[in-house]
Amino acid sequence: MKTLDLLHRWTGGLIGLVLAVLGLSGTLLLHRDAWISLPHASDEQVQETARLIAATERLMADPANRPGSIVFASDSLGLNRLSLGKEAGAYADQTGNIITQWSDGWQRPELFLFDLHHHLLSGETGETLIGIAGLCGLFFVISGSILWWRTRRTFRFRLFPTRFSRPAILWHHRDLGIVFAPLLLLVMFTGTTMIFRPVTALVLGLSAPATIEASFKPPEATYGPLAKNPDWAAMIGTAWQRFPDAEIRILSLPREPGKPITLRMKQPEEWLPNGRTTLWFAPDTGQLIEARDALKLPGAAQAFNTFYPLHAAKVGGLPYRLVMTLVGLALSLLGSLTVWTFWFRRKPPRRPVPVKVTVPAE
After folding, report:
1. Cβ-contact 280, 218 below 8 angstroms
2. Within this chain, do residues 24 and 124 fall inside the same structural domain, yes or no?
3. Is pTM beyond 0.85 here?
4. Nearest-CA neighbor of 108 among 35, 161, 50, 171?
5. Of 19, 20, 139, 268, which has fewest CB within 10 angstroms of its CB?
6. 145 and 257 part of one domain
7. Interatomic CA distance for residues 228 and 263, integer angstroms
8. What Pfam families would the database entry show (predicted)?
């Protein structure tokens, strides 16, 4: 038990600050659509065929400045988001008018927070570090629950330490951690699986990673170059013929020559905010290559599709979002106070050495 306690403290001291940053940035991102203050951000979502096609054709009209992808407006944000290459992008209203543009993600607070939470502003290196932090977080929750069991009779729930002394912070850390342990375990696991997909094997079985990879893999055939004026109306019309109850969520152009155009849809039964029902179209002719129904994917793939909505509170409405807000704040508090007590704790005052007084004999 002493070894487990030592590992728990040292790992927390080394990685606690990363978890605190992830907890705070994730909490802010839970409410991202609510605090984006732009014209038309609060417009009602439009999924009417003619208007959606008209906006798409307008945004895609200029081949020289055509966006690489369009994330269409949702029920929580009334703006289309355009990708204009690398970190550049724009928001447009649902008629196709550009509202604002940026050339760097740092120019938009929600994009800065997204990069911080997903990459620690360091690209793939930061993403790997986050994955390691997530694995450490899983260890913290499990080991912390084991260590708490010894002191369970002294449990007392408190949002903040009674005082900022090391003993008080340690008791607060143990009791607050055990209260949020189940949800912290959920957050750590779902977040880690999105970086290290083999982690899904812990819950979904050893064959799950390969099944998931195959389920999301696009068609491998090579096609002609992207047409100058693809028939967007025909593609969108075909998509709605196949899935009449679904929303059009993302339209993506090929990233490489010969690859297909991708159209993602969200069916009412799907939890993913952008859905995983996917259609691929030939870039030169616009003909449908393949349509993949997310509700008919293998069980492991369907289960994996629930991880992100659970992690980012994209299901359950406002009540679940508020619960996950508390979880994010708790993670921030646990991580930051752990680092503080581990690296900056004050040394206990030295006890005075008793002085032996000799009484001279008379």
Report:
1. yes
2. yes
3. yes
4. 35
5. 268
6. no
7. 18
8. PepSY_TM
